């Protein structure tokens, strides 16, 4: 960074320096005042809202627990279970239906919170469309959006929706409970709760509130006012904790910051959430900061007048230095600076002279370094030509083998060319699984040409994994190890390669029926290339993905060796590797 005292005029430098300092002081003061007062307001507001939400949560929980208890006792009623067992004649069944309908009707009239009750059962008897008690076919249960919540539970709450009635469509919340008798599934009892009653409880005495009621799984049941989408607020609340709290949600370009206050209680499955605009809470703090800013502007004007006067007293020697700096060029004309200054300006001029001398030396050094860098770049470009030259030579040798009638040699050269092309991969470090498998198939086919019918292999890939990515040349060192070391005293061998998806990982298993890891003492010494290749794969996996992934080698019970490779399931190559690949292509 250039020293401003060597670049700007001293009068402007003093003027702007003092201006910036005063502005910063005023800004820090205003911001500190705004920040501290905002925090105090937020804490007060969140504390008040949290206490209010706890009270509302307790009241709503009491009401809804009553519904759950009524549903439980009703589902265990002997007359209801006898009616649902469908073991009576038609007359007796009709008589019990009247009795059950009357009992459920009395329950509906006795509790104003209940809008109606539906009973899902086998072979229901028709009921009046105007009745609050409806007998429905159990086969129609799947048509209800909340029915899937009963798959793993005996009871469940639904979100808000509307049901038809004599007054028109009525918004309700429904509580559904399975009716069981001696492990027999008889039907489902659904109690419809008036949503407007719960909404009134959720509103309380507040007007203009923005609140949400959610269940223990974080599913939104009811809302009032303007609230955030579930995907936006659910990530800020720990639904596994029974503690209430608040959090500041940062805004985006479409919405401002929001204060989220939530209530969770030990005896309740419900979460009550209130949203308050951050701007609304901090309005008074912002007004205080504005007043401080206005006072600061007046102070800034006074200080700037003083600094302008003082800066003019120091401007002359600085202007001389600035003029000398403007006309200076390496190897060109140099403007002479005064030598009669004995104060700080004299030290400044002396330092400038030494600096110009150092610049001359650095310029010569940069010229030498530039020439060295240019030579290094030419050598690097030449090194990039070599792999392509070798690939072209393989292609020429292939054509010579074809002309000479050496079909087997031609096929080997062709396969080596394919392997070399995949190995280059335009400089990319990650390739698709399909390309990796093509590379290993080329290698195995070359080995089959050498072994004849003695070498067999199988490759199994789960659907959808062909387009996944992995570090290139991951399989070849292990397959080579199986053939070169595992089958070195055998006339035949079999290599099995299987790629599977386990959760979010790609798992590769390589099995062979060779000599295994525990071999006799007379076993020939392992080739250095094979050991390096396996170590290279391990180090690359550790470098790319960390210690959670890697390679495991072990003995198979039926003989031979098993290699297990665990990698993350990548649907695209990592960005840093793609960048390197693109750079290599452009080069």
Automatic annotation (TrEMBL):
Keyword Electron transport tagged: no
Tell me which EC number(s) this protein carries: 2.7.13.3
Q: Which domain of life is it from?
A: Bacteria
Show the stretches that span the lipid bilayer.
Answer: 12-34, 291-310
Q: Which ranges carry the Histidine kinase/HSP90-like ATPase domain? A: 474-569
Q: What top-tier enzyme class does this entry carry? A: transferase
Record key words, sorted: Kinase, Membrane, Transferase, Transmembrane, Transmembrane helix
Molecular function (GO) terms listed? protein histidine kinase activity
Looking at the record, the residues that make up the Signal transduction histidine kinase internal region domain are: 376-453
- The protein's name is Sensor histidine kinase
């Amino acid at each position: 960074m250039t020293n401003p005292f060597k670049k700007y005029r001293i009068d402007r430098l003093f003027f702007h320096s003092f201006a910036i300092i005063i502005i910063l002081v005023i800004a820090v003061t205003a911001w500190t005042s705004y920040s501290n007062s905002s925090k105090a307001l937020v804490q007060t507001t969140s504390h008040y809202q949290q206490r209010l939400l706890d009270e509302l949560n307790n009241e709503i929980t009491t009401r809804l627990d009553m519904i759950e208890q009524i549903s439980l006792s009703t589902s265990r009623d002997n007359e209801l279970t006898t009616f649902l067992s469908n073991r009576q004649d038609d007359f007796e069944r009709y008589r019990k239906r009247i009795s059950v309908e009357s009992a459920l009707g009395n329950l509906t009239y006795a509790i104003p919170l209940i809008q109606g009750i539906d009973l899902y059962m086998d072979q229901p008897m028709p009921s009046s469309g105007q009745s609050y008690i409806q007998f429905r076919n159990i086969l129609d249960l799947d048509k209800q959006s909340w029915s899937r919540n009963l798959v793993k539970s005996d009871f469940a709450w639904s979100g808000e929706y509307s049901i038809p009635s004599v007054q028109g469509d009525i918004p309700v919340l429904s509580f559904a409970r399975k009716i069981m008798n001696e492990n027999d599934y008889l039907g489902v009892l659904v109690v419809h709760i008036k949503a407007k009653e719960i909404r009134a409880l959720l509103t309380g005495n507040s007007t203009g509130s923005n609140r949400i009621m959610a269940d223990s799984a974080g599913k939104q049941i009811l809302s009032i006012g303007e609230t955030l989408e579930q995907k936006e607020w659910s990530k800020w609340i720990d639904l596994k904790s029974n503690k209430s709290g608040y959090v500041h949600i940062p805004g985006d370009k479409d919405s401002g910051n929001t204060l989220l206050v939530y209530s969770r209680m030990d005896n309740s499955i419900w979460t009550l959430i209130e949203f308050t605009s951050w701007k609304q809470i901090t309005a008074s703090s912002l007004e205080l900061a504005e007043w401080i800013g206005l006072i600061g502007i007046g102070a800034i004007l006074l200080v700037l007048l003083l600094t302008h006067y003082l800066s003019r007293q120091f401007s002359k020697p600085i202007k001389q230095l600035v003029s000398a700096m403007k006309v200076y060029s390496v190897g060109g004309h140099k403007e002479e600076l005064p030598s009669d200054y004995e104060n700080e300006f004299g030290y400044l001029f002396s330092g400038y002279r030494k600096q110009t001398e150092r610049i001359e030396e650095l310029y010569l050094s940069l010229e030498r370094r530039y020439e060295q860098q240019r030579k290094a770049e030419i050598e690097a470009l030449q090194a990039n030509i070599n792999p392509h030259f070798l690939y072209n030579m393989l292609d020429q040798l292939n054509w010579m083998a074809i002309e000479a009638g050496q079909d087997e040699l031609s096929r080997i050269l062709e396969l080596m060319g394919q392997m070399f092309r995949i190995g280059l991969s335009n400089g990319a470090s990650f390739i698709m699984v399909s390309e990796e498998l093509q590379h290993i198939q080329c290698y195995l086919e070359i080995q089959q040409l050498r072994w004849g019918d003695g070498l067999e292999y199988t490759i199994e890939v789960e659907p959808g994994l062909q387009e996944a990515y992995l570090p290139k040349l991951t399989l070849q060192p292990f397959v080579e190890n199986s053939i070169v070391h595992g089958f070195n005293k055998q006339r035949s061998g079999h290599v099995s390669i299987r790629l599977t998806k386990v959760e979010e990982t790609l798992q590769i298993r390589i099995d062979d029926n060779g000599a295994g890891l525990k071999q006799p003492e007379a076993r020939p010494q392992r080739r250095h290339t094979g050991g390096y290749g396996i170590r290279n794969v391990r180090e690359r996996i550790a470098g790319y993905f960390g210690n959670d992934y890697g390679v495991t080698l072990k003995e198979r019970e039926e003989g031979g060796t098993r290699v297990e490779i665990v990698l993350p399931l990548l649907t695209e190559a990592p960005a840093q590797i793609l960048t390197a690949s693109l750079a290599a292509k452009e080069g």
